[in-house]
Amino acid sequence: VPTGSGAMLNAICKGFEELQSVSLLDDLSSMHMHCAQPHGCAPIVDAFDKNSDKVIPVEQPDTVAKSLAIGDPGDGRYVLKRLKQYNGIAKETNDKEILDAILLLAKTEGIFTEPAGGVSISVLKKMVEEGKIDKDETTVCYVTGNGLKATESIMTVLKKPQVMQADVAKISAVIG
């Protein structure tokens, strides 16, 4: 789950628990919940890595994932509890990896996400590469926002479009 304040991860866990309480889900014991944060604003990841229950705020968040740049996550301590409860981990990813993940999702699935979605895709990719998630395992990756909300960051890595005259022969020559 892409995590800024931590509220969404907590709400997702609560939702699953409520579904179980009304018998719409059988068992949550095999569920794992993971926290994904951008490098430059990863106070929950820092606390998790130190095995601490205290989240130390980031004074000046610096990341392309502006919607996750919450230096003092109000629900951070609850996220740490949820990670323990659901055998999860907290992991960070850098800006280049975030932008690469946005492009990967667009190319492979046709989904244009904002950088927060790139954070979750990038962390998922890392976890599969590290063997923390099996590539054949059923996994839900939260992609929570449309890329049109934050085009400035992705524009730095996109190829510039080729400008040409509106001529069928010239366009056909380029696109094949």
Biggest sheet features: 2 strands, parallel
The CATH architecture is 3-Layer(aba) Sandwich
Count the domains: 1
Order of helices and strands: HEHHEHHHH
Helix content: 40-55%
Name of the top-level CATH class: Alpha Beta
Instruction: Quote the distance from N terminus to C terminus.
Output: 41 Å
Shape: globular
How is the largest sheet built, in terms of strand order?
Answer: 1-2
What is the count of DSSP helices, taking H or I runs of 4+ residues?
7
Detailed description of the structure:
- With 176 residues, the protein is mostly helical.
- The protein has one domain: Rossmann fold.
- The protein has seven helices and two strands; from the N terminus they run αβααβαααα.
- The chain has helices at 7-21, 43-49, 76-85, 95-109, 115-129, 151-155, 168-175; strands at residues 35-38, 90-93.
- Strands 1-2 form a two-stranded parallel ribbon.
- Helix 1 crosses helix 3 (76-85), helix 2 (43-49) packs across helix 3 (76-85) and helix 4 (95-109) crosses helix 5 (115-129).
- The longest helix is centred in the N-terminal third of the chain and has 15 residues, at 7-21.
- It is globular.
- The termini are far apart.
- The model has no long low-confidence stretch (mean pLDDT 94).
